[in-house]
Amino acid sequence: MRTKTTIASLLAATMLVAAGTAQAETLRLLTWGSYAPEELVQKFEEEYPDIDVEVTFSNNEEMIAKLRATGGAGFDLAQPSHDRIYAAQLEYDIYKPLDLSQIDTDAMQASLLDGVKANTTIDGNVYAVPHQWGTSGLMADKTKAPDLKGWGDLCDPAYQGKTSMRLRRTILLGMAFSMGEDPFAAYSDLGKYQEILDKVADKLIECKANIKAYWKGGDDLSAMMLSGEIVASETWDSTAYKLFDQNKNIVFVPPETGALAWIDTFAIPRKGEADDAAYKWINFVLRPENVTIMSASTGAIASVKGAKDLLPEDKKAAVNASFTDADIDNLKFFANIPPGVEDMEGKTLEKIKAATGG
Amino acid sequence: MVGAARHVLSAKRGRVMVQKDVRRLTLILLFAPFAMWIALLIVVPHIGMVALSLREKVAPRVYEYGLGNYIDFINEPIYWNTLLRTGTMSLLVTALALLIGFPIAYYIAKIAGNRTRGALFLLCLIPLWVSDLIRAFGWILLLRETGVISTFLQWTGLISGPIEFLYNDVTVIIGLVYTVILFMIVPLVSTLDGMDDSLVEAGYNLGGSGFTVLRRIIVPYAMPGIVSGCIVVFMLTAGSYLTPILLGGKNSSWFTEQIYDQFITRFNWESGAAFGFLLLAFTSTVIWLGLKLSGQTLANTVAKS
Fold first, then answer.
1. Distance (Å, rounded) from C-alpha A35 to C-alpha A29?
2. What is the distance in angstroms between the Cα of B255 and the nearest Cα belonging to chain A?
3. In terms of domains, do A58 and A172 share one?
4. pTM confidence score
5. Domain ranges in chain B?
6. Same structural domain for residues A24 and A165?
7. B62 pairs with which residues across the strands?
8. Is pLDDT at A92 greater than 50 in this prediction?
9. CB contact under 8 A, B60 and A342
10. What is the mean predicted confidence (pLDDT) over A265-279?
């Protein structure tokens, strides 16, 4: 008798659970680490009790690889950078056009919105809108590397064995600018771009002896910088801001040729199943009170109007310590990557890694 | 009478038939998980990979079949140098794991008492309870310039300035040996365990020195264990990803990293798949050569221990 009632109540319980999940919608978010702070997720779920948020942390390359593997299924909202939409969509057809009427575009800073739209429009359809932006540049310990100004200074023998960089496309582009080239302009002429890449490769191979190690993620970079094992490095600005919190001597240095700026976007995967929830999330994180929470977690600046004032106090101090208005005017926004360029850059990076120059 | 006898007989035959069917069904049911594992998780994905590796990208969303990805590999010294480097370093790791693992296994199997044996085995197992990633970070904490060892040596006054132990090939080899040595010890212990102590005593009685006994009696007896340990360790090392990536320096390329880069950063799944097969072919060849040279077969090594 007793076992029977237990079974009955268990059955009832499972049915209740099943009914519960059947009603709730799930928003599967594919985004960068720290782009979905627990505080915001909870707030969102309180406001929309019938939506569950599931977060997967990733990076540009893995986001595209994941979506490519399934033809754009498995996630309802993705956040690749603005230069990773156009070619990926052309080659793999992994996103679906956005319904801009569902998005509070008035809140966004017009120049960023127009920039992203221009970069991600195919056949009149817009595939992405901006979320947050930030830059890649240099970081230095002011007391130990006061003269670090440009990308090329990472190879200055004065800092022998005390600098670092990530062996990815950012350093190729930065080094090209510091050598007086304009790699983005050369995207339209791949022969010319290959010449630039070869020059950059020679420079970076020569530079290997000066480098302590290539960093792979924000954590190992932070550890090397905070322990003083390196005094200068290529970096994301947000990582530098986080370190500024702990050591006021570590500042972000926009290179004299201009920091490289990226905009992380919102894009909806082609087989996403919760578009409404996705639009709700987009509008939710663009609200001023939520922007501050988001920026505190990511260290990046939202692409809404007046975003700099919405930064939390400590981040505001870090940004002001690094950027002048002239630096902001000098930003170089990553240009759309045409098909084929990733392969050329990949080969160049392999060549640098394999060279035993240092 | 005759009819009744025939009836009994056919009933008996029927029972035998049922028993046969039951046995066959049991066999099928027992075999099914294995067959499904092999088919769904190994054969089918590999067929997909072969197809992928034979595809060449002509233009966006346009592909052609051909051997281009394999030809690229042959034409690019960076790729095959990395593969050879990975192979040599894996062989070195295997040799070191054998050199360090053999005495440990011998001690556990032959010298230690029954109770200490279990404890020693457990001690070897414990590192495996933590993930690869955590173990690699453990090494990083120990070996980095501001890490435990460098600081300790400075404190004792043996060295005057900090020393960087991390980011070089030696560190990668240490880390890999540490990760895989258990897979060497386990088969060795199980083979040595079956060796009769009187064989060793007889060797000494006949006037053999310690070295002769080791060379003529113990090693030949343990050969199946040695070979199967080496095969497993070599495969694990050549296919490892985290340890070489995290501990390696600016010059340490590893072939699995090359495969990852093809798939993830270059969006070039086609050549990534081709590289995967080349790694498989390369490691299989090395193992085949090893078996030939040592005069062993898969059946009396890996299948036995």
1. 10
2. 11
3. no
4. 0.82
5. 2-53, 68-294
6. no
7. B59
8. yes
9. no
10. 95
Domain B68-294, CATH: 1.10.3720.10
Residue with tokens 């905070």: A226
**Residues of B (130-189) whose Cβ lies below 8 Å from A:** 144-146, 164, 166-167
Whether residue A157 is predicted with pLDDT greater than 90 in this model: the reply is: yes
- Other CB atoms closer than 10 Å to residue A15's CB: what's the count? 10
**A86 and A120 fall within a common domain:** yes
Residues A122 and A233 in one domain: no
- The structure tokens listed for A131 are 């979320």
Q: Are residues A84 and A175 in the same domain?
A: no
- Do the Cβ atoms of A350 and B258 come within 8 Å? yes
Interface check for B245 against chain A (CB to CB < 8 A): the answer is yes
Q: Clarify whether residues A22 and A170 are in a common domain.
A: no
- Does residue A42 lie within any of the structural domains? yes
**C-alpha Rg value of chain B to the nearest Å:** 27
| Interchain CB distance below 8 Å, B268 and A339 | no
Q: How many domains does chain A have?
A: 2
Q: Is residue A326 part of a domain?
A: no
Please tell me whether residues A206 and A339 are part of one structural domain: yes
* The two structure tokens encoding residue B214: 């080791």
Which residues on chain A are in Cβ contact (under 8 Å) with B144? 223, 227, 229
What CATH code is carried by the domain that includes residue A92? Answer: 3.40.190.10
Contacts of range B257-266, beta carbons closer than 8 Å, 24 or more positions apart:
B258/A350, B258/B79, B258/B82, B261/A346, B261/A349, B261/A350, B262/A346, B263/A65, B264/A61, B264/A62, B264/A65, B265/A61, B265/A168, B265/A342, B265/A346, B265/A349, B266/A342, B266/A343, B266/A346
Does A65 reside within a domain?
A: yes
Residues A272 and A237 in one domain: no
Q: Which of A61, A170, A348 to mutate: most B Cβ within 10 Å? A: A61
**Chain A hits for B80, Cβ within 8 Å:** none
- The answer to whether the CB of B36 falls within 8 A of the CB of B44 is no
The answer to whether the CB of B101 falls within 8 A of the CB of B181 is yes
Residue A150: pLDDT band (50, 70, 90) is very high
* B265 contacts on A by Cβ (under 8 Å): 61, 168, 342, 346, 349
C-alpha torsion sign, points B251, B256, B262, B264: negative
User: In chain B, pLDDT over 90 holds for what percent of residues?
Assistant: 49
Q: What is the CA radius of gyration of chain A?
A: 23
Whether the Cβ atoms of residue B56 and residue B64 lie closer than 8 Å to each other: yes
Q: Could you give the ipTM of this predicted complex?
A: 0.80
Contacts of B43 (CB under 8 A, 6+ apart): none
Residue ranges making up the domain that contains A247: 134-261+332-354
Q: For residue A343, give the nearest of B146, B251, B268 by CB distance.
A: B268
Separation CA B111–CA B133 (nearest Å): 34
Shortest CA distance from A220: residue in chain B: B246
Mutation target vs A (from B137, B145, B250; most A CBs, 10 A cutoff): B250
